Amino acid sequence: MHVIGQFNNGFILTRLRERQPSGALSSDLFIIDQHAASEKANFERLSSKTSLGSQRLLCPLPLELAPAELEAVRANLPAFEAQGFQILLDEEAPAAQRAKLAAVPFCKRASFGVADVHELLALLLDAPAGASIQLPKLRAILASRACHSAVVIGDALQPAKMAAIVRTLSTLEQPWNCPHGRPTIRHVAHLGGAQADYYQARPRLLWPSRGSSRRPEGRHRTCACARLLAKVLASLLNAQPRVCRYADDS
Questions:
Q1: Listing from the earlier edge strand, what are the strands of the sheet with 86-89?
Q2: What CA–CA distance (Å, rounded) separates 202 from 186?
Q3: Are 142 and 178 contacting, i.e. CB atoms less than 8 angstroms apart?
Q4: What per-residue confidence (pLDDT) applies to 208?
Q5: DSSP assignment of the chain, as one string?
Q6: What is the pTM of this model?
Q7: What are the b/e assignments for 215-239, b being 16+ CB within 10 Å?
Q8: Parallel, antiparallel, or unpaired: how do β-strands 185-191 and 86-89 relate?
Q9: pLDDT tens-digit profile of 136-151?
Q10: For residue 73, what are the contacts with CB-CB under 8 A and spacing of at least 6?
C-alpha cells in the first residue's frame, strides 16, 4: 500500500494498486484508523511475548462439571495447562467430584479461580479447531496496555511513521479490528484514470490544521476528497460530517 497522507490527524489514507488478469491496473483508496492500527500491533506484540506463570493452590478447589463438560476438560487438559491452570482428575471419585483445580495462572493485575475455568471451557467449546484462545481477563489487561502505548487520534504523523503503521498492519495475524472491536481499515472508493495518477504524489496532509495557510498543489481536488471522506467517516462514526475549506476555497 502507498501512503497518500493523513486525514484530520487521525486517519491514514492509502492507495492499493493491483494488476488484474486482463492486464489493467486496479487502484483502490483505503482509510486506516491510526490509533486502532497501532493498538492492534501493540496487542499482538504483547500477546506473543506474555506468558502466564502458574501458582499452586494450598487446597485444590472442586470443579462442579456436567458429564459432557468433564469430557471436554479431559480432552483439553493441554489447553488449560497452557493458560496456567492445573486440573486434577480422580477417576475413582463420583462423577460430580472428579475434577479439582490445583493451580491457577499468576498475574499481578488479576486473580483467577473456578469461574475462569468455566469461562475458558466455554471458549474452547465454541472455538474452531486450532483457534488461539486467550483468557478474557488477560485479554482485557493486554488490550489496556496496548491502548495506552498506541498512537492516538490527534497526533500529526510524519510520512515515515504512517508508512511504518501501514507496513506493520500488513504483518499482523488478525489486522481487521483492534482488541476493543474498532475497525482498523476500511475501503473507501475505487479509483481509476486520472484519480489513480493523482494519488501517486508524495504523502501529504489532507486536512490542514485550523488557520493553516498551506496551499498544496491540487488543493481543490484535495478539498473535494476531504469532503467525501468526511461523509464516509461520519457514516462510520455516526457523527456529523465536517467540511474542509482552505483559506481561498470558495
A1: 53-62, 99-106, 86-89
A2: 21
A3: no
A4: 42
A5: -EEEEEETTTEEEEEEEEE-TTS-EEEEEEEEEHHHHHHHHHHHHHHHH---EEEEEEEEEE----HHHHHHHHHTHHHHHHTT-EEEE-TTS-GGGSEEEEEEEEBTTB---HHHHHHHHHHHHHSPTT-----HHHHHHHHHHHHHTS--TT----HHHHHHHHHHHTT-SS-SB-TTS-BSEEEEEEE-THHHHHTTSPPEESSPPTT-----TTHHHHHHHHHHHHHHHHHHHT-PPPPP--TT--
A6: 0.70
A7: eeeebeebbebbeebbebbeeeeee
A8: unpaired
A9: 888 999 999 999 999 9
A10: 63, 65, 80, 87, 89, 99, 121
pLDDT in tens, 61-93: 999 888 888 888 998 899 899 889 999 998 888
Phi, psi values for residue 214, rounded to 5°:
-65, 135
Cα–Cα distance for residue pair 61/115, rounded to 1 Å: 11
Residue 67 in grid coordinates: 458429564
If we measure between CA atoms, which residue out of 47, 49, 98 comes closest to residue 77? 98
* DSSP line for 105-116: EEBTTB---HHH
Q: What whole-number distance in Å separates Cα of residue 15 and Cα of residue 190?
A: 10
Separation CA 76–CA 21 (nearest Å): 46
**Taking 60 as the threshold, does the pLDDT of residue 179 lie above it?**
yes
